[in-house]
């Protein structure tokens, strides 16, 4: 059982907070009295979010931060610990995707690498820079890592993204188990957004010009029959308060839409039959 999270004096760092869900999460913390380090690879976007918060009476500090830059992440962590002696909430939100969707066999090696470097190693950099001192600070803390519905559903044409978000899912679950095992006062929540109306579809603006999908022949994946009726587009403004509630309750997971439980149940059944169904002589 963790101690209560103190929102009123929270020191918070949000990556990718220049827009979308990151901005909403930053605003929700600030509305409850927290001091929020609003970071983004796009400095002007980070400044815009910070200004919105400060004008509304909150307290935000804008910083340019590319989550793939481990040294820059360390430098930010050093600054935060020097200024406050602690970090209460670390929100590893920054992420990118690619358009058009493409089959795994139509993606380039650079596509895979770019996606993984930001979506997975960006999270790892946040964890590595902050956790050791967070464990020593002696007060309740919380980490939120943004995965995706892609990690719990199976979306044809979205393989690279799925892999990167499944990696975030995997590491976050183990991280929670490690904190529990060690008796640390640190919660871990995985955020799984469904479809949220943000700038995510334009992520490749941040990529080297020569590698962008629009300057190459990329074969778009033709979706034959996929639909999830429960995944209607949602505005990002709703997501911040969902995350706050999840931290309040130390919920391991927060979803923006109903989970595709039919798929999950079918997967559990198939996993069981992958053993019991195939080894009928097994003595279990
Ligand atoms: N929008 C959706 O439907 C959806 C669905 C599932 C998961 N997600 C995930 O939610 C998170 C937030 O995305 P969003 O939808 O709000 O999109 P968004 O594009 O509005 O926000 C992402 C932010 O991350 C920033 N960013 C990109 N690369 C970065 C880097 N290397 N370092 C630091 N910042 C970087 C962008 O500049 C942007 O401001 C992402 O991890 C995304 O993968 C989004």
Automatic annotation (TrEMBL):
GO MF annotations, alphabetized: oxidoreductase activity
Lineage: Bacteria, Bacillati, Actinomycetota, Actinomycetes, Mycobacteriales
InterPro entries associated with the record: NAD(P)-bd_dom_sf (IPR036291), Sc_DH/Rdtase_CS (IPR020904), SDR_fam (IPR002347)
Family the UniProt entry places it in: Belongs to the short-chain dehydrogenases/reductases (SDR) family.
Keywords: NADP, Oxidoreductase
Pfam families: adh_short
Lineage: superkingdom: Bacteria
PANTHER family: DEHYDROGENASE_REDUCTASE SDR FAMILY PROTEIN 7-LIKE, RETINOL DEHYDROGENASE-RELATED
Official protein name in the record: Short chain dehydrogenase
Originating organism: Corynebacterium suranareeae
